[in-house]
Each structure stands twice: as structure tokens, then as C-alpha cells.
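--- STAGE predict ---
source: upstream dedup step, 1 unique chain passed
mode: sequence only
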Amino acid sequence: MLLCLLPLFNSCGKKSSEAENGVLQIGLVCSDLSKSLNFYTNIIGMKDVGGFEVDAKFGTDSGLSDGKPFKVKTLKLVDSPVATTLKLACCSDSTGTPPKYVTDTPGVRYITFEVPSTKAIKERLAKNGIALLGKEPVDLGDNLELFLVRDPDGVFVEIIGGKE
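--- STAGE serialize ---
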């Protein structure tokens, strides 16, 4: 399940640089924050750039939750104000059954990371016993390849990048 929390204004009520640049922030609801944080930082290579808590009142008033508070960790591939932000949101009872394929049900089913090289990610996946979903990385030509894995909650994660 995806959750989008876009802070459009800073504490002074002015538009933030993120809003002016049209930055994409993606909220990903996870069942175990520590497992997901480990996957996205130590396997994929994202940087932990902060986080915040959503209290019960804000969750209800905004329509984000039915009064359940939750924590959010923010991650980026690069530390830049205009980089896409992945927000890992976790509530104590977030559960679900992941689809078998990305085409099984409507909605957002996978996220794609485009990286300069897939080599380090493949090494970290192997070291942690995380199997690729396909038979092997798919050759895209121009020394690029693509492969898919699943995160701890079964979200499809597509990696595209240089082979070296």
C-alpha cells in the first residue's frame, strides 16, 4: 500500500524548495520498519535522511489513518533537496498479502531504482540471500541490465543500471 505525504509548506508558511521543484515523494507502508529500513538502506543503498511521527489527531484530521499513530522514515538515493524521497510508514498492525505478479491487481505494485551500476546491489542481495525474481538480470543493451526483487513486504523492486 502506498501513502503519499507531501509537505508543501515549511514552518513559515512559504513554499518549500521541494514544492517549487516538483519533487516526488513516495510513501510505502511497511509491516516492520526495521526490516524495511535495513532493506532499502543496506541492500538498495539509500540514505536515511530523517523521519517524523504522525500522531492520532493528525492521522484522523488529514485522512491518512483512522486515528492510528505511525512513524515515517525518509530515504533518498542521493542527499539532494530535489531527489525523490521514499517514505517508509509503519503502523503496528500494517499487514497484507502481496500479489504474485505486478499485473495481478490495480494500483502501484512496484518501484524502480535507476542506478549507475547494479554490481554492488547484486552483491548485497546475494550476501543477504535475496533471490532475483527472474532467471537472471535482463540485458537491456548499452551495458544496462534490469532485475527485480521483493522488499520485506513483497513490494516489487526493479533495479536498472550499468552492469559494471
